[in-house]
Design brief:
The chain has 8 helices and 20 strands. By secondary structure, it is α+β, with helices and mostly antiparallel strands.
Length: 415
């Protein structure tokens, strides 16, 4: 089905209004679909301008400041209590900022009620009407906006086709699987073409296999409709799989914003490095610096790595991060062009596509390496001596965090 047909608007749809009766955004019922119209994808749709949200003495969101582009799949990622859901609720209008401003298409909507904002929200609980069939569930929004029958008859099937439920229009929610119900909820939220769709851990109620399948479905749907998605999750894999950009949050603060590759390969802090995927995090000390490369001592050896902060100067404490898959194992010295350390094998665990190898360096610091099960090494056993090596470009040198001291048991943090 041609995507351009989705941009044809409801001519009788009501425009959201601000507190003084002014229109909050230009009517999305007649606008071009973002991403399909040649508009700048970096043009901000949502702006979070130094927003703080407090509940009494508790600061849930602390001076958040970022923007979300047109047609972008933007995720807010972090552990429970980090402030990501509170930020989403402020964008939706269910909470108001204590200070700062939230703008939609350049207009301050900080005090605009939810029903006057041109955004829709999908929660973990789908809240479908059980007495209505799929078609009527999706048509509920257009009918509430007094759209014509012809417009509803055109728009609803288009959305059902996009979410691949065109053949299920006559079914009730109880006759659908969890993933199908999730797609009905998406179609219902998208049928009026909001400026942004807000999703609060919508896949949390699904089993693992279905959740993985829905990750790709969500990204496909977002690309087809071209609407900005703002996605809240605590699942690192979800965020890395679907997002154009990710905001990693901790204790109310935004630790880093970047593409999945930037977040994974060049974390800005110890928290980000440990929360995203698996990471070796080793105490280190900076001994010298040349441009973006730092000379350090770690694991009882002299090593190098990429600086992730301008504050890393000789004499400062730091943390060296290397992803387990970037480490190679050999029984011989890696040679003068590759840096490495000698270690003793402590444990080997077969995990399907990888073998997880645990070593102890000379100073007893654990080293984790993920190696190919078909590696050409001789049969390794606990007690064997090997070399762990990696390229300097695979090592990130991070500022030490006094709030997150490293101990022998947290050298590897799987998030």
């Amino acid at each position: 089905m041609p995507v351009h047909r989705l941009v044809e608007g409801f001519t009788r749809g009501e425009k959201p209004e601000g507190p003084e009766g002014n229109v909050v955004t230009q009517s999305t019922m007649s606008q071009s679909t973002p991403g399909a119209s040649g508009l700048d994808p970096q043009q901000p749709v949502i702006e979070i301008d130094h927003v703080t949200k407090s509940f009494g003495e508790f600061v849930a969101v602390d001076d958040a400041h970022f923007s979300i582009g047109q047609g972008e799949f933007f995720s807010m990622l972090g552990p429970s209590g980090c402030g990501k859901t509170t930020t989403l609720r402020m964008i939706a209008g269910f909470e108001q900022p204590t200070s700062g401003a939230i703008r939609l298409d350049g207009v301050d909507v900080s005090r605009v009620p939810p029903n006057k904002r041109d955004v829709n929200t999908v929660f973990q609980q789908y809240a479908l009407f059980p007495h209505m069939n799929v078609y009527d569930n999706v048509a509920f929004g257009p009918r509430s906006r007094k759209a014509t029958k012809d417009e509803i008859a055109r728009r609803v099937p288009e959305l059902l086709d996009i979410v691949r439920l065109g053949d299920f229009a006559a079914r009730r929610p109880a006759q659908l699987s969890g993933g199908q119900q999730q797609r009905v909820a998406l179609a219902r939220a998208l049928v009026n073409l909001p400026k942004a769709l807000l999703l609060d851990e919508p896949l949390g109620a699904l089993d693992l296999k279905l959740r993985h399948a829905m990750q790709f479905e969500l990204k496909r749907i977002q690309r087809e409709v071209g609407i900005t998605f703002v996605y809240v999750t605590h699942d690192q894999e979800e965020a890395l799989t679907m997002s154009d950009r990710i905001a990693v949050m901790s204790e109310g603060k935004v630790e880093q914003i970047g593409t999945p590759t930037e977040i994974y390969d060049s974390p800005a802090s110890v928290f980000v490095a440990g929360f995203i995927g698996q990471a070796n995090l080793w105490p280190a000390s900076v001994t010298g610096r040349s441009g973006a490369t730092a000379d350090i001592t770690a694991l009882g050896a002299s090593l190098k790595g990429r600086c992730q902060s301008e504050n890393l100067r000789p004499g400062t404490d730091a943390v060296l991060m290397v992803r387990p898959e970037r480490i190679t194992i050999s029984t011989n010295h890696p040679g003068p062009t590759t840096q490495g350390v000698r270690g003793t094998v402590v444990d080997l665990t077969f995990q399907g596509p990888i073998v997880r190898l645990v070593l102890h360096a000379g100073d007893d610091t654990p080293i984790i390496a993920n190696i190919d099960p078909d590696h050409d090494l001789p049969m390794l056993r606990p007690g064997d001596t090997v070399w762990a090596a990696w390229d300097a470009t695979a090592a990130s040198v991070l500022p030490a965090s006094p709030d997150q001291p490293l101990t022998a048991t947290d050298v590897v943090d799987e998030g």
